[in-house]
Amino acid sequence: MTEIKVAVLGAAGRMGTQTCAAVEAAGGLSLVARLDKDDVIDAGSLAGADVVVDFTIPATTEANVHAALDAGAHVVVGTTGWDDASRGRVAEHLERLNAARAGGSDQTPGLGVLIAPNFGLSAVLAMTFAAKAARYFESAEVIELHHPDKVDAPSGTARHTAAAISAARAEAGLAPSPDATETGWEARGADVDGVRVHAVRLRGLVAHEEILLGNPGEQLVIRQDSFDRSSFMPGVLVAVRAVVSRPGLTVGLEHVLDLA
Ligand SMILES: NC(=O)C1=CN([C@@H]2O[C@H](COP(=O)(O)OP(=O)(O)OC[C@H]3O[C@@H](n4cnc5c(N)ncnc54)[C@H](OP(=O)(O)O)[C@@H]3O)[C@@H](O)[C@H]2O)C=CC1
Ligand SMILES: O=C(O)C1=N[C@H](C(=O)O)C[C@H](O)C1
Questions:
Q1: CA pair distance 192, 162, nearest whole angstrom
Q2: What is its EC number (predicted)?
């Protein structure tokens, strides 16, 4: 593929605006469609896009992905709100479409969907380091801090981080983090796969995460800060270029960056 044609969903939003500008400025990519709320997503409105990038809202992102796939496009998703069930439905959709393609005369590679809870390199590295360190610590908690216009909590990044910590702890045979709390559970944050996650919303912030790992007499703190949404753009462009040759479902930019 010489030039990758890109359509952006949620194009008028905070991330969509920056994504359109980044695609327009990038070599080898061209922006062919900007869609937002109330725009129909089909082959016509996507204007021949090879890759659709979704930065919309949790309530609509899954439906957007199915519509983009039905229009024959690969999809990069930054929107939050995904769970095992919604990811499973997208994986099934991809299997069906790609099996039909393989059986036909069309020899183009299968379609791919890349869902990345966070495109920031500092965040992807923080999650990777946390997953690697988790097996060595008795206690693990996550604090995510965001701008107060964010509609969901805990953040998709914190959910992904907690899931990775939880999997590492389970593999190492660790017991649950010690916690003698008997009252006031509402002050202990959300339970995400057995890891406590605390969400802060504060004017002036963009997107930040701290992973606290504790042992008797010591603590490891892993912290990342996105001070500006420009921090997400290199990762978005990496994902757009990668998804066209990654058939099926990929969750997490760490797989594309060979960090997994
Ligand atoms: N993976 C990552 O690295 C990052 C992910 N995010 C995530 O991306 C998502 C978007 O964040 P952000 O840009 O800050 O949010 P915004 O609210 O600024 O943007 C969302 C945009 O989507 C539009 N929209 C709503 N419904 C639809 C629809 N059905 N079809 C198309 N567009 C629609 C909104 O329109 P209207 O305002 O008119 O409703 C708005 O323009 C969030 O889930 C956020 O958590 C954010 C930053 C980084
Ligand atoms: O809404 C945001 O701003 C962000 N959302 C993503 C999330 O929920 O993890 C990624 C980043 O934290 C910014």
A1: 6
A2: 1.17.1.8
